[in-house]
Amino acid sequence: MNESAVKLGEDLKRRGLTVSVAESCTAGGLGHEITRVPGASGYFIGGVIAYDNRVKTGLLGVPERTVEQFGAVSAETASAMASACRSLLKTDLAISITGIAGPGGGTPEKPVGRVFVAVASETAVRGIRLDLDGDRDAVRQQAVVAALELASSFLSD
């Protein structure tokens, strides 16, 4: 079991907060790790796998203009995904991940391993950019761990 998921769960329970997820390149990996922790049903509400841009804009409600202007893999889209997911699923926090896990899909401007993670609450959004190494599975797993750690640090501030 992922220690970061356990810590996040403890923090959420202690504060009486709920969390949801919006995932692209990790395709449910973040939700999976959160719910591996016994008692996760007390704080985890659900998630959206927004693998295609139509899901990001149509279901989540990320503005099409954001995706067109900055790209699906961007800090702006990650922030919009987290905010939209929090609103859609009515949770205290939402965590989002969008990126390029590979092996294809990368460009010189956005190489394989480029991932953006964001956490949103009612009053703030914080995001990070990651440039991860490894194969597809390694990139996805590292992104999940980074997202869990970002959410925990978000709660600590």
Question: Would you write up a description of this structure?
Answer:
With 157 residues, the protein is of the alpha/beta class. It has one domain (3-156): Alpha-Beta Complex (Maf protein). It has helices spanning 3-15, 29-35, 53-60, 64-70, 75-89, 136-156; strands at residues 19-23, 44-49, 93-99, 114-120, 125-131. It has a five-stranded mixed sheet with strand order 2-1-3-4-5, sandwiched between helices. α2 (29-35) packs across α6 (136-156). The radius of gyration is 14 Å and the shape is globular. The model has no long low-confidence stretch (mean pLDDT 97).
The number of helical segments is 6
Order of SSEs = HEHEHHHEEEH
Please give the order of strands in the largest beta sheet.
2-1-3-4-5
Look at the structure and give the mean pLDDT: 97
Major sheet: 5 strands, mixed
Q: Which secondary-structure class do the elements indicate?
A: alpha/beta
Task: Pick out the low-confidence regions.
Answer: none
* Domains, number: 1
Q: Give the CA-based shape.
A: globular
In CATH, the homologous superfamily goes by the name CinA-like
CATH structural fold name = Maf protein
Number of strands: 5
Question: How far apart lie the N and C ends?
Answer: 25 Å
Q: Helicity level, as a percent range? A: 40-55%
Q: Proportion of β residues?
A: 15-25%
Rg over CA atoms, rounded to whole Å, is 14 Å
